[in-house]
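Trying the structure run again after the queue cleared.
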Amino acid sequence: MSDASSHDIRTLPDLLALFGPVSSLAAVKAIPRLDAHCRRFIALSPFLVIGSADREGRADTSPKGDPPGFVRVIDDRTIAIPDRPGNNRLDSLRNIVENPDVAVIFFVPGVDETLRLNGRARLSTDPSLLATMAVNGRTPVLAIVVELREAYLHCAKALKRSRLWDPKVQVERTELPSLGRMILDQARSTEDVAAVEARIEQAYRDKLY
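Done. Tokens:
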């Protein structure tokens, strides 16, 4: 059997040799500001994923979700993302403190195209900003403010291939064990599954905001 690593791509010329030239439109589609199309996409989006890395380059991605329009467009180059209650691991937030470079991808249910933003982030506790992000009378502890470097719309190929929004291919929840069961298995914990699942369900009911 051949050594799999011998087939690894290690240089940029080797990588480029596998692909044709970038299309003329794709080469120029990134813009340094949020235009009307970007603003509309963000206003319709209830869900995003933010990518970050610590000072050593160890990467993390984190989902953020709320009703459409939860991300504030402050100006043509700045957005603010509320940070809602979670598990307090603070992976993305720790990374941003160490390394402000982030990438964000927005999704709109039923739309196969996505919007991608790259920029530098900071963590803000500005009360006037957080007040605009209150839900059910509760304001977030902080917001992730992203200063835009570039924005561009991404074509629909990945979502079309995955049929992400097609209800006919949705997976029944019973195809996987419960979250509590999976986490306990991975942690090799002997804690009671029912008790863990009860805490998770209570958090879903009482601690979304």
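The longest strand covers residues 142-154. Worth checking whether this holds up in the mutant runs.
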